[in-house]
Amino acid sequence: MSVLAADSAWQRRRIGRQRTARMFVAACQVATLLGLMFLGILLVDVTRDGAPYLRSELFTNFPSRFPSQAGYASALVGTLYVAGIMSLVAFPLGVLAAVYLEEYARPSPITRALELNIANLAAVPSVLYGLLGLGMFVEWMRMGKSILAGAFTLALLVLPLVILASREAIRAVPFSVREAAYALGATRWQVVRHHVLPYAAPGIFTGIILSLSRAVGETAPLIMLGALQYVPFLPRGIWDYFTVLPIQIFNYVSLPNPEFHRVAAAGILLLLGVLLFLNGTAIWLRNRATIRW
Amino acid sequence: MREGRGRRRLQEQVIGTGLALCAWLSVGVTVAIVAVLAYETLEFFRLPVHAGDPHLVARRPDLQRFVEARSDLVGHPWRLVQEFLTETTWSPLFSTKRFGVLPLFAGTVLTSLIALGVAVPLGLLAAIYLSEFAPEGVRRRVKPVLELLAGVPTIVYGYFALTFVTPLLQDRIFGPAMAGQNALSAGLVMGIMILPLVSSLSEDVMRAVPVELRHGAYALGATPMEVALRVVFPAALSGIAAACVLALSRAIGETMIVALAAGQTPNWTVNPLETVETITAFIVQVSLGDTPYGSVEYRTLFAVGMLLFALTFLMNLASLRVVQRFRERYL
Description:
heterodimer; A: 293 residues; mainly alpha; B: 331 residues; globular
């Protein structure tokens, strides 16, 4: 009798525990779905606001006091300039630094400090890179609020990301490849140049493209370096004032007239389009060129 | 032959040195950030000293304006330090300048905590689902899509918070008690942004927990929930804590969402329905205005920037410490 009672109490508890477990699994599912739903709502909301304003004039018109005539011409060209110069600076430096850390540096406390420093830099808020650019490039080096200062600032911002991604790619090249080249008498640089880098190239390019898309979407650091409300001309050189796509969007969002919010939403669609293209390219590259060892 | 080898060795050395320089550049960047912030911050706190020197004041308009605004501080740099750290009025952009940074600090903490309140529960549950319960195919597809949330530019989130979330909350729940720019919307949306940071990193560490531990628990009659919460979760705790601290650090440094949706009015409050200004939003606000190089406003940028740097640096340090302290080792 008492055994039976204990047994049924145990049964009841077991059923209760299983019910709780099912509810918990359901809660986990709901949380995951919520995350996906947020992304969906965000995209639907922006598309609904911006799609009617997606016209060809967005590409040709300059900022304007009238929402119907406002466009992103100077912002698009500015983004091209800044991203281009940034790429020329940050990507070679980042890849070479990664080569040093993976192929040349011997394990030592100094190397570890170097690695820790790069990891820390990747976590510094982007707005502080803006202050760095303002204090160092704009004022100290007298570059002014120019395209060049903006490009350099973004280059420093993405440098740790490029280094981390490139190291990952270089590390994935098996050691046997290097040993074979060394056995044939190749120098360290010849091994890197002719064997490691070509094999790591797809991974490196994927990392570079992702860093580029991060830089293109970055707003905060560039506000310090020339968030001019109104740039009614195309940049004529690297010393010109500039505006970029996210900053132009920011300017339109901060205007009180809700019509401008629709123009901003259209700009966001342009921006997301650019990012989708970049990330799509990165994924395509990764799937196509990944070598299975 | 010998000559060629010598030249090649020289070439190798040059290349090695060049590569090392590229790597050391990153240290240069860190030094530059700290140096710029520290120099300008020091200049800010030395304003009362410089303002006491008549020769300097005669030459520098920024000092003249400082003396006009705050003659009580002239000659008392420590009084400025004390005011900065303990007073609750921040108005360096007005003519009667007060330099108590606490409202900006409070705004930053308030929005970041709201963000964590969204991201930690949802992110952890999602991580548990993906790591413990989801079929492999679902996990492989859902994880990258969730990570897209972290790849969306923050200006898009700012737009979303300002033009979608705030009107929605005003119409449906809070009514006019909610300001057009408020801590709640900004915090909620920021929570969505950092959600994948919590979920992805936590999922990685949970999957790294050896499957034998789970088998052992199941063999003892544990339910899936008990396995997840009492075996996997504690085993992965160090990594999860590090992920949460990292997410907090990201929330503290986030700029565009709070600049657009939380507001530009320093406010010493914990009411999430009110307008607040964060450290980062203040930096944006000053940068948008026309602040001449070397002015008092220009220097405040770097003083609060230094505070932000110190905060996020502490977070990163804490995340390292947490990892070391709770790390479980498996053979």
